[in-house]
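Changelog note: in this version the structure field was regenerated for every chain. One regenerated record is shown below for reference.
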Amino acid sequence: MASHSDTLVVFFGATAGANGGKLGSDERELILLVWQIVDLHENKVGKLQRTLVQPDSVDLSEQCKEETGLTAEELCKAEPLESVLQQFHQSVSAELKSLGRSSYTLCVDGPLLIRQVLHPEASKKNLVLPECFYTFVDLKKEFHKCCPNAGPMKDLTMSSMLDYVCIPAVVEQEAGLREVENMVLVMLHLLAEPYNHKFSTFETVNYKFESGACSKTEAVDSETVIRARGLPWQSSDQDIARFFKGLNIAKGGVALCLNAQGRRNGEALVRFINSEHRDMALDRHKHHMGNRYIEVYKATGEEFLKIAGGTSNEVAQFLSKENQVIIRMRGLPFTATPQDVLGFLGPESPVTDGMEGLLFVKYPDGRPTGDAFVLFACEEYAQNSLKKHKQVLGKRYIELFRSTAAEVQQVLNRYMSTPLISTLPPPPMVSMPVLATPPFITTGNTRDCIRLRGLPYTAAIEDILEFMGEHTIDIKPHGVHMVLNQQGRPSGDAFIQMKSSDRAFMVSQKCHKKMMKDRYVEVFQCSTEEMSFVLMGGTLNRSGLSPPPCKLPCLSPPSYTAFHATPTMIPTEAALYQSPLLATPRTPQAPTHSPAHALAYYSPQLYMNMNMSYTTYYPSPPVSPSTMSYFAAPPGSVAAAVAAQSAPALLPPQPGALVRMQGLPYNAGVKDILSFFQGYQLQADSVLVLYNWSGQRSGEALVTFPSEKAARHAVAECSNLPFSGHPIRLVCCE
């Protein structure tokens, strides 16, 4: 439009739900539109127009029925929104032509009708709105600018504005007509003496979201940021911008949040241009994106910068190209070159500036992570690249997703801040006594175990022991195993080893569907073999056992802090475990004193390192009531219990000889490694796949051989042999 000053079209609408100050807060559809032209040059008005809109659902709220007087029967005879908008545009254009005017701008009583109703509804129905709906005049803001003494703008209503200028309100017209006539009265009064007001402040609605980079040094107002929760995992920044259609998001203002594994967690931080738009965004709490409702909460500028901010010059240069579509590639071979990636994408998906449009994500030491980001100049090229999702490059399938500038920053920040185990300072040695008997599980078909299913996610070991009640005395030492999921959180399952199958049967009968907190817990009798299958990552259901995958679930860490040993139980010489043992585990030194009182000392920092390095896939030691100090027993009772065990059980088994494997493919599992060493009679528990601090496989593994001779023979025979096309380096650990 050439000019915004020729004509204003006073525009009013009502929905099937809440109206007034809550207009658009309940996602209800438009059912009524009313408009009237005002000629700003001649101070004349055109014909008052009123039309009904047929919604998809004619279920009207009581407030709507009372305020509009409309019925479902009337709305069923009306035209749908798309047709009504076409009629509106044609009617206004024809009337303007008769007046000799060439352009017009909408004038509304507050921004809600345009921003919170019309644009969101048109977006959901895939309607293309005419250009006139992207610019409007807010009568309240114009009135406040002209009459600043009328009170705060947020408190202005049509009645208060009419009272301030001493104009009687129109009250006898139909709903919609009444509101438009009152708005016209206020406008004409502002145009006349003594105000002679010029309508010059025009608000705009962004046509599309603009991506961009954000610096950590940038100031972000906390009054402009929200957190959206419950997003589909495949949502892009454009999907989120569409959810907030009608509200203006700042450039690069969508930051998708990632979990500890670098995957999207269904949350995003969104930054708007001002607090007014942020407040309107909060009114979209529990509005729907597809079939899912989205929660919207306040957030802070610090939270936004933590996710979206970056300091890398390489990233800043990569994101400096504007209006680009960003695609994330995951699972690339570590030997992949830019030429390999460009060849994989093909000529139908040309990358912006060739190799300059590629950004490989690396660890601080320069090792590739298997992730990369790619820039495309248009949506068509990006769509073509997404057709390559899960196609194979080399011997690996590649995942492709839409991405954002904020996700690029977040992924780079995460990997570049990843600490290396070899550079960690030695942890402080804090002695914590634990029973030296290692918690190894011997499999068998005897049904001397129970499985607890449906535990509250807040349940701790103490809650399980309290749930067991008097039956805790029948639990084997180190027999309590809480199962965590791959995010390291409680899965709701636990296994307990009992002293006999009779005891397990009794517990399953007495405790089945007994309440723990506000949930009932199912208790089943099972065998040690079935328990081991589940603890190694398999599933146990009514149809039987499903074999475990390559990744192992994590058992709960031991709770040793509550165990207090008496002075007679502490040896003068104890095995001290330090963090370098993560790289080369060694056999603990046997105590020189009585084996009945043998204790080992673990550094709590070591346990943290083990848990973080191998993240959620390596079983941690289980616990038992004795290590929890669950029984109020006299000080010597634990020592007596230890002394009662057989001497061979007190000595840790010899771990044999360790061999470190380096250069493994990142999808290599335990079964693959056992196949590589076929003929050496290794068991599954002889292989430990190592993980880095971000929870991803490091490309290394530790393999325990029965003897040093067998280990050296394996190194000599298998070193540098291909493993899925990768040469493997084998090293004996001293």
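Spot check on this record: Residues 341 and 726 are 19 Å apart (CA to CA). DSSP finds 22 helices and 36 strands in the chain.
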